[in-house]
Amino acid sequence: MYLTKNKIGGLALLASALLSLCSCSDDAEVNATEPVFAITSAPTFVFPAEDAPTQTFSFTVNNEWRILSDAQWVTFSQKRGESGQITIELTAADNPTYAERTSSFYLMSGERKREIALTQAANVPLGINISNADALTAESLSKNGGLFTINFSLKNVDSWDVDFSYEGSSTGWLSVSSRDEEGAVEIKYEANTVPIDRSASIKISGGSYSDQLNITQAANPVITLDGTKSLADILDYYGIRETLASIELSGPVSDDDWALLKTLAGTTLKEINLANITNTVLPNSQFINCTALENLTLPTHGQLEIIPMELCRNASNLQGIVIPEGVRIIDRHAFANCSQMGAIYLPSTLEYMYGYCFEGQGTNRPAIHIQCQPLQILETMRGQDTKSTKASVFNNNSLPAECALYVNEKYLDMYKGNFTLDDLGIDESWEFYPDWELGERHFKWSYAEIYTE
Length: 453
Known about the structure:
Blueprint: H1 5-23, E1 37-41, E2 45-47, E3 55-61, E4 65-69, E5 74-76, E6 80-81, E7 84-92, E8 101-109, E9 112-120, E10 127-130, H2 133-138, E11 146-155, E12 161-166, E13 174-180, E14 184-189, E15 198-206, E16 209-217, E17 222-224, H3 231-238, E18 246-251, H4 255-265, E19 271-277, E20 295-297, E21 306-307, E22 320-322, E23 329-330, E24 343-346, E25 352-353, E26 367-370, E27 380-383, E28 386-391, E29 404-407, H5 412-415, H6 421-424, E30 449-452
Parallel strand pairs: 2-9, 17-18, 18-19, 19-20, 21-23, 22-24, 23-25, 24-26, 26-29, 29-30
Antiparallel strand pairs: 1-3, 3-7, 4-6, 4-8, 5-7, 8-9, 10-11, 11-14, 12-15, 13-14, 15-16, 27-28
């Protein structure tokens, strides 16, 4: 058979069209004789739960094609056919469940296939249904107060309102900040002023429908002492004396309060924050033998001048200590046998450390951070009441020589051993002058591994 010029031209045009079709495909390195398709209209198939409108899907294919799908809730206007420009209509049945459902279908031609995802929204049950209850109840609200939003669905509900109910004696700490009538309400919660967690229920209701969630706000560990109630009265009122693990105090601490703190720090109380108390003097031996105590924060008002003798002696689980600015003297055995110390911070105002105030570190080598100029640490006076007896600050346990020493940069040369009494500003008017001498037997700072900070 002979081909006319027109027939030859027609075949050329057909070949050109097929090559053009192949060039539209996302698949690489495909020749004109292989099955190939190009998706020309691929919407994101997300259907509403009910009365979903029909969606379309278009593609071009140069061979036979078919659609495979396990999604029983989606029907296709056509699931197989010949080559050409194809448009398929997808229809989703109503979702009878309250959960989102997902699936996919495959467009296939020969060995080639393309997967396309299908999603349908969850059906909203009748009434009012809070959607983020789990997230809001998973963690306690901040003790400092703030805002959170409740999201909920409305079906067959024309109007709604919010009610609060509280557990215990702490009430009125919730209020509506703003609301969206379509299904959201922003709640404001006040700062917690009590040393226990507090809880409340929030109910959203409309007509015969309602839903609610329970929330908890974290305790505020700060207890303000004003002299009207003792610490024991406050702890007993809230029923937490026997379980208290952390406490923060403000105001004046009485003798009875000190006694209770000492008892608790020997049993359950691990953390005591005294930063905001008004006392300028601490009792001797206040936390001696308090093995439960792990963290102690001393007053930061700047008027505490002396760390008393045996303040934390034998507090074997104390993790470290920060001596606040304003302190001039650390008395004997103040932190003796605190064998878990990880760090010791000494202020710029420190002038003298009496004997054995940091003895008994054992094999532990706490980092020492010191802001003042070098102090005498060997052959110091044992204590304010035993000044004639000589002692060492660290009880000859090689400190600070075997620890990391962090010093104020302006005193770096002094800590390396380059100073005189005049450099230290020491003269006969200083109360410790008779005890003060230069020499290796009095100083070991220069033997440490020294850093600046």
